[in-house]
Amino acid sequence: MASIQFTLDNLRRILLEAAGADENVDLAGDILDTTFAVLGYESIALLETGGRIEREYGIVLDDDDLSDDITPRDLIDAVNAQLSLSEARAA
């Protein structure tokens, strides 16, 4: 079975679908280590983003994984950790 990986491109797509983007933020740029607060995403937008990730990937994220003081890299790592756990349980 192929391992599913959540990528920055996946996150960008879901962020745009869930909450759009601030016109002053270039999501296509180097955003991996920029906090969501600086990117213009507040807690409600991140909750919607997290809900979409959970539904699409069949995982559950912790509330701490969706705070506006984390970075896209942090969220991607959290999603991939949950995906790995899910795959290990299914094996």
Automatic annotation (TrEMBL):
Q: Which residues form the Carrier domain?
A: 5-83
Q: What species is this protein from? A: Streptomyces jeddahensis
InterPro entries xrefs = ACP-like_sf, PP-bd_ACP
What name does this protein carry? Oxytetracycline polyketide synthase acyl carrier protein
